[in-house]
Model the fold of this input.
Amino acid sequence: MSTLEIKGLRAAVGDKEILKGIDLTVRSGEVHAIMGPNGAGKSTLSAVIMGKPGYTVLGGTVTLDGEDMLALPTWQRAVRGLHLVMQYPTEVPGVHVDEVLVEALAARGRDTAALAGIIDAEARRINFDPELVTRALNVDLSGGEKKRNETLQLGVLEPRIAILDELDSGLDIDALRDCARRVEAATHENNLGVLAITHYVRLLEELKPDVVHILSDGRIVKTGGSELADTLERDGYAAFV
Ligand code: ADP
Ligand code: MG
Done:
């Protein structure tokens, strides 16, 4: 059982305050959706949780099972069990996915002997061509292939808490369903906790959020159940921002 706890989190880019006090708790097995207009700070929140350079934390805390994440470099946050699927996965020429996974598992003290078989099984689960795993990370992959690639890594690494920054952006309907179902399965099989940033109910139909938050201008302005996503789909953000 793991708990990602965010309390009073404030963060800036340069001298512009973007996150203005975020309180959020995600536990194992729970799916929390974050919805909100463009520029609300959704990607900033994911970046600050993972420790992406360029952001200044002005106040508040981020802990995983009581341990201060903000004090750790990004790779150690990942080793502790935080995993980010980026909105725009980075292309890394010359580095292959299987090599990345060997290093990542080794950093977690996990055995890599069976990795090839695990990668193959994970690829099949999401209809990802296993051949693409031997290519340079995300280089020359389509939008859908990149997100399948990211989802495969999530499946192999078995993080405690996954942050999905618009998993649905750049995906066709089939890829969206394959990736979202894999993440949803992990919430049962591995008790994965999920923080899913999205604009679209289509993703949430697969991911089945327990809680939906609306983020606007750096603050969570409304929290509700999955019906809140349907309200947004119907009426837009106007009533909440
Ligand atoms: P969202 O993901 O909700 O659309 P973002 O977190 O990407 O919003 O951005 C929130 C605000 O912060 C925007 O006004 C954006 O321009 C600004 N911002 C985010 N990252 C940077 C950055 N690296 N440099 C300058 N401004 C940034
Ligand atoms: Mg964003």
